[in-house]
Write a structure and sequence with these properties.
Shape of chain B: flat
Number of helices of chain A: 17
Helix content of chain B: 55-70%
Strand order of the largest sheet of chain A: 5-6-7-3-8-9
Radius of gyration of chain A: 25 Å
Mean pLDDT of chain B: 81
Number of domains of chain A: 2
CATH class of the largest domain in chain A: Alpha Beta
CATH topology of the largest domain in chain A: Rossmann fold
Shape of chain A: globular
Mean pLDDT of chain A: 81
Radius of gyration of chain B: 25 Å
Largest interface: A-B, 88 and 64 residues
Oligomer: heterodimer
Low-confidence stretches of chain B: 1-14
Structural class of chain A: alpha/beta
Distance between the termini of chain B: 73 Å
Distance between the termini of chain A: 59 Å
Strand content of chain A: 15-25%
Number of strands of chain B: 2
Strand content of chain B: under 5%
Largest sheet of chain A: 6 strands, mixed
CATH architecture of the largest domain in chain A: 3-Layer(aba) Sandwich
């Protein structure tokens, strides 16, 4: 069935698929000198399904928002600092702002775009705004929820939905408006694999039901390849580099796609690719950690640290544990651990695990089993609900064994935490200061030097004076990790460090974590990113509601090679 | 082929979902709002002890009908319960002196007159505060918004914007906890309380603005603020139960006034 036949065959009443056309279109945001998009020519036929990929800064989100008529600020030719636009973008030949409701938009952050507090009301919201009569609204709501497979009571609260359920709710809200165009802006970026599948299937059902035109942007484009007719590769500034059938574009422009940070299916990282000797290139063998030398283990790859200008001086706080322990030293032990965010809501129980120096521990499992809560508990930030979490003698170094009882400073010297949202942890006014805060609060005399070294290693030198809140997502992620690494804690806990990142940032983060483990840190990652687990050659435990099950790992060739290569 | 007709369930699809809310809890919150306002007007007309005491007595007699657990009741009314003694104390000390004088502290006089006034005011605050709190303990913000927009005809943009903002408050609470944990994790939770508070407040502001922007985009993309008439998925009813609610609340005020006038204690 051709695109046009599909559009004609499935168009319901008032739901005919729309044509989207950019003609030499450009957009510059207010108070910016660079154009986000310029000179874009792209036509999407009614019923066609197009995936748009390109490097960060190619204006992918900008063009989606233009189609949905939700760009901020009115362009004003008289004012140089105001937003500016060139050319035209049209939906069925009209300005998108005049056909609101014809374009349905679903964005990245599931939490932030649920409007109403009950499921039925949220789906009905768009219909109300476009003046659909009441009886028809509820018909549409029930039908839309059926299509996306969200089989929950209409008056169920929207607060307890999983990410995948929330995105399906957003899709139902869009579907109930009977859109001619479905616009998806990284709808799966923050979802676990199960959620990704749910959203993919819901979108497929929605497209089958409406025949709508689709425009999707996603870093992990593999999710959508079975649904799209055309893959469009943009270059920075918005020019079209390639446009054609997905197979053809993937085949002919593989290198360009890789360079653009697109996750091309079939080019997933190999097991252990972010670890020590197995890794070539990347952030280099120099290691990211401004580590203090003198660890009990004398592994050869730490010898370089002895010449490190950041090595500890005798004045460092005497209660500091050793920054680097011999690989294989157990630092944290959980036995029968149960976790809870508050006194009442227990989320995990019966968890047995060990956190070991020089190893990466990946905590995986479905949504809602308390992965993040376990991470925060291991990090000494939440008190265990039941069972034990003890620091071993090498980590505790003379203080109590229960991390949640340690003072803030004692904790920071032993266990570092990188939060899921980097903005939760920024405390300084500039990037350089942010990197120095941790070491300084521990009384380390070389805080400034440590920050200086990390600026280069993280590629943030040019942003040293910028406020952390003004950085891009990828830059914030690297800074958040660097700020914790600066204090050189023996244990580092990270919550979803790669979620929503393009491949370039992903590689940087994976490289950082690999370096940390290689230089003797214990790294704990809470993640649903299979590629990360594999690239870090992590020990994996899958969390269930009644315990944590270690995964027995198949020895892949790359790992075997890596082991042989190790001294 | 239209998917809409095949998927729509003819029974469930044509009517709004019926919520199993009966009795007092099913009353449209706008009725409670209007009733409490009217009761307040009745009670500020006079400053005597009797009218306030009668109103409070009637309210306490009706309270069991709401079936609110004692613990919830005490917790939610605690701001009123805390405010009342302080109000009474300040009026006892500084109220207009009259009658027998009990204490004279130079700047403050405690007299029969000021004590009576203190009691009357304390009872009055309780008599207005109690229904204002208990009737809204379980009020659903969505129902209130529907009422404000459809019955009182307040602008939809304003009402729905406020409703969305209320939903964000719980998210901000979560943010605040994360911010506090992050400070502990970074070793700065024990020093510089003021500076740390400022950095948390700043981060919270940034997060709130980001959330608000995303939400605004989400609402706008679903036609919020579009020209043309807006319809309402949920009818906001103003019928028997609502009139009854207003009647009961106004009735309490009227009975209080009548009793006070009959006993000759009415003081306008």
């Amino acid at each position: 069935m051709t695109v046009t036949e599909r559009a004609v065959a499935t168009a319901g009443p008032g739901a005919a698929a729309a044509r989207v056309a950019f003609r030499d279109w450009g957009w510059r945001y207010a108070a910016r000198s660079e154009w986000a998009v310029r000179g874009l020519d792209l036509t999407i036929e009614p019923g066609e399904r197009v995936a748009v990929v390109g490097p960060s800064g190619a204006g992918k989100s900008t063009l989606l928002r233009a189609v949905a008529a939700v760009l901020p600020d009115e362009p004003d030719d008289a004012d140089d600092t105001a937003a500016a636009t060139t050319g035209s973008v049209t939906v069925d030949g009209s300005d998108p702002a005049t056909v609101r409701g014809r374009v349905g938009l679903v964005m990245q952050d599931p939490e932030a775009h649920t409007v109403m507090s009950r499921i039925g009301d949220d789906v009905a919201f768009g219909c109300e705004n476009t003046g659909v009569p009441r009886p028809e609204i509820w018909e549409r709501v029930v039908a839309a929820l059926g299509v996306v497979g969200l089989d929950l009571p209409l008056d169920r609260s929207t607060t307890r939905l999983s990410g995948g359920q929330r995105q399906r709710l957003a899709l139902a809200g869009v579907l109930a408006m009977r859109p001619g165009v479905l616009v998806l802006d990284e709808p799966c970026a923050n979802l676990d694999p199960d959620g990704v599948e749910q959203v993919h299937d819901a979108v497929a059902a929605l497209l089958d039901a409406t025949g709508a035109t689709m425009l999707v942007v996603e870093h992990r484009i593999g999710t959508w390849l079975d649904l799209v007719d055309r893959l469009v590769l943009l270059e920075p500034g918005g020019g079209v580099v390639a446009s054609g059938a997905p197979d053809v574009v993937l085949e002919e422009h593989g290198a360009a796609l890789d360079a653009a940070g697109v996750w091309v299916p079939g080019r997933e990282p190999a097991r252990g690719s972010a670890r020590g000797p197995a890794r070539a290139g990347g952030t280099g063998g120099a290691g990211v950690r401004p580590a203090r030398a003198g660890g009990t283990g004398g592994a050869g790859n730490r010898a370089r640290d002895r010449n490190n200008p950041l090595a500890p001086s005798a004045t460092a706080e005497s209660t500091q544990p050793e920054a680097v322990h011999a690989s294989g030293t157990t630092l944290l032990v959980a036995r029968g651990l149960a976790t809870a965010r508050s006194r009442r809501e227990r989320v995990g129980s019966g968890i047995d695990l060990e956190v070991v120096a020089g190893r990466v521990l990946a905590i995986t499992g479905p949504n809602g089993v308390g992965k993040s809560t376990l991470g925060l508990t291991l990090a000494g930030l939440i008190r265990p609900f039941a069972g034990r979490l003890d620091a071993t003698a090498p980590l505790a170094a003379g203080i109590g064994v229960a991390p949640h009882r340690w003072t803030s400073r004692q904790l920071a010297a032993r266990i570092g935490t990188v939060f899921q949202d980097p903005e939760h942890q920024f405390i300084a006014g500039s990037v350089a200061e942010e990197l120095a805060v941790g070491p300084r609060s521990l009384g380390l005399p070389d805080a400034g030097d440590r920050a200086d070294v990390l600026l280069d290693r993280l590629g943030l030198r040019h942003l040293a004076d910028a406020n952390p809140f003004t950085l891009s997502g990828g830059e914030q992620r690297r800074l958040a990790i660097g700020a914790v690494v600066a204090s050189a804690p023996p244990v580092i806990v990270l919550d979803e460090p790669t979620s929503g990142q393009d491949r370039a940032t992903w590689a940087a983060v994976a490289g950082l974590l690999g370096d940390l483990a290689d230089t003797g840190s214990a790294v704990v990652v809470v993640t649903h990113d299979r590629d990360l687990v594999r690239a870090l050659d992590a020990d994996e435990v899958v969390l269930h509601t009644d315990g944590a099950v270690p995964v027995t790992r198949e020895e892949s060739p790359s790992r075997a090679v890596a082991q042989e290569a190790r001294p | 082929m239209s998917t809409w007709t095949t998927h729509a369930d003819p029974v469930a699809g044509t009517a709004p979902p019926v919520r199993p809310r009966r009795g007092v809890r099913g009353v449209q919150p706008v009725a409670s709002l209007l009733g409490v306002l009217a009761l307040g007007v009745c009670l500020v007309l006079s400053l005597d002890v009797v009218s306030a005491a009668v109103a409070l007595g009637l309210e306490l007699a009706l309270l069991p009908l709401l079936r609110i657990p004692v613990r919830t009741l005490l917790l939610r009314t605690s701001p009123v319960l805390v405010a009342v003694p302080f109000t009474a104390l300040s009026i006892a000390l500084y109220g207009r002196p009259s009658g027998r004088e009990w204490f004279d502290l130079g700047f403050a006089h405690v007299t029969d007159g000021s004590l009576t006034l203190a009691l009357a005011t304390a009872l009055r605050v309780l008599a207005v505060g109690l229904p204002a709190v208990v009737l809204f303990i379980r009020a659903d913000p969505t129902d209130l918004a529907d009422g404000l927009a459809q019955i009182l005809r307040l602008p939809a943009r304003f009402v729905l914007g406020a409703l969305a903002a209320i939903r964000m408050i719980t998210l901000l609470g979560d943010d605040w906890r994360q911010l506090a944990m992050a400070r502990r994790a970074r070793g700065v939770a024990e020093t510089g309380r003021i500076r740390r508070g400022a950095s948390m407040a700043f981060a919270l502001l940034v997060l709130a603005l980001r959330r608000a922007t995303t939400l605004a985009v989400a609402m706008e993309s679903r036609g919020f603020g579009a020209r043309g008439r807006r319809t309402w998925a949920r009818p906001a009813r103003f019928a028997g139960p609502e009139w009854a609610m207003i009647a009961v609340l106004v009735g309490i005020g009227v009975v209080a006034i009548v009793v006070a006038v009959c006993l000759g204690t009415w003081r306008a």
